[in-house]
Amino acid sequence: MTTFDRLPDRLRALPPGAMDVLVVGVVGMFTGPDAAVNEPPYQQADRLTWLLLAISLLALLWRRRWPVPVAVVTGAACAGWALHGHIGELLNLPVIVALYTVAVQGDRRRTLWTGLVAALTSGVVALWVGKDVVNPQGLPVLEMLWPLVPLLLGEVVRTRRELLAEYADRAARAEAEREREAARLVREERVRIARELHDVVAHTVTAMTVQAGVALETIDVRPDMARQAMRQVRDSGKDAVRELRATVGVLREGDGEPIEPAPGIERLPEMVERFAGGGISITLRQEGAPDGLPPVVALAAYRIVQEALTNVVKHSGARHAAVSVVRRDGTLAVEVVDDGSPSPPSPQGPTSGFGLVGMRERAAAAGGIIEFGAAPGGGFRVRAELPAGESGERR
Question: Are 242 and 257 in contact (CB under 8 A)?
Fold first, then answer.
């Protein structure tokens, strides 16, 4: 890159004050020689000529702060040269710079008013001094048009800057929105994974605890029952490892297939068997074909029953629990009722854990509803209604 290629970047890097001094120097370099030389028999350079030049150049130093007053001062100096009889092609350069600044730093309304006043003033001065002094072509209309050129240029530059700033602002807002959306998706994925891990770990530990208790109580009197309970502990551990592997697999890089399909209501008998024993009896009633359910609905139903039974074993002190899964009229109704304590921890309580909250989130994610509370005949009831296919109503 040559020195001339780097020149615009260097100029933009200058402080505003240094840039103003540079502009004044460039304007003076072109205007000064034009003011010093005048064709005979017109007015030659004198003290008034240099005074007006000095006033114009000094006024340009404040063009950023007071653009309209600077335009008035430089315009008056340009008119003073014309009325004094001094002509020149570049004597209007200071007012051109001032008018450009008025447009580039203002708005369209101010540009229009400034252009109107400047054009009328230039036309009046042209008519006043005569065509031979100001306009050798004899067309005062041209003298009314030249002030509009720097105003138009400044308006174009300002509009372009505003468009670029608007585009940059839109890009920044779009980037911020993308970041917010990415953060939201990350939070949702973290909540989903945490919910899966909670359901798997809480259910498995509870089931293993129940079966281990059965084994301890029957190891001397019923060795066969104890062995069966320990087999359940072993199977529960294997299933937990398998589900944890499938859940953690989504954190790996790549878009591979799931390691294992998500559990559904066809595995409810197996789950109920794991919780059996330990002083609590569980009955399961299923109506309707389990196939054809959307995966998210099947998983939600499985996890809701799983969490409800875990709460029954851990918190209720119940002796009996009934699980009902009924598919009818495009709706899958899931209900778990026990005869234990009717007041489990509130889902909004500070020490309640995440079980009831997780059930509510799963039901909402599947497009269904859930309610839980004291059962009419005593105990506690959890009931969820989920859409069971395309014909199901999304609640």
Answer: no
Reduced to 3 states (helix: H, G, I; strand: E, B; else coil), residue 372 is: strand
Contact assessment for residue 194 and residue 358, using Cβ atoms and an 8 Å cutoff: no
The CB density around residue 195, as the number of other CB atoms within 10 Å, is 20
SS3 assignment, position 380? strand
DSSP 195-214: HHHHHHHHHHHHHHHHHHHH
Secondary structure in 3-state letters for 316-367:
HCCCEEEEEEEEECCEEEEEEEECCCCCCCCCCCCCCCCHHHHHHHHHHHCC
Two structure tokens written together for 190:
């973290």
Half-sphere exposure of 94 (CA within 13 A, CB side): 34
Q: Which residues pair with 321 in a beta bridge?
A: 282, 338
pLDDT-derived band at 9, boundaries 50, 70, 90: low
pLDDT digits (tens, 9 = 90+) for 92-112: 888 888 888 888 888 888 888
For CA atoms 29, 30, 35, 37, give the dihedral sign.
positive
d(CA 62, CA 279): 92
Greatest alpha-carbon span in the chain: 136
Burial 361-376 (b: 16+ CB within 10 A, else e): bbbeebbbebebeebe
Distance, in Å, from the CA atom of 312 to the CA atom of 320, rounded to the nearest integer, reads 9
Q: What are the tens digits of pLDDT across the range 290-313?
A: 777 888 888 888 888 888 887 887
Please state the rounded mean pLDDT for residues 317-331.
Answer: 85
Task: State the Cα–Cα distance between residues 240 and 197, nearest whole angstrom.
Answer: 10
Helix, strand and coil in the chain, % to nearest 5: 65, 10, 25
Q: Identify the CA nearest to 162 among candidates 217, 80, 107.
A: 107
- 8 Å CB contact between 304 and 362: yes
pTM of the model: 0.49
Residue owning tokens 């001397």: 220
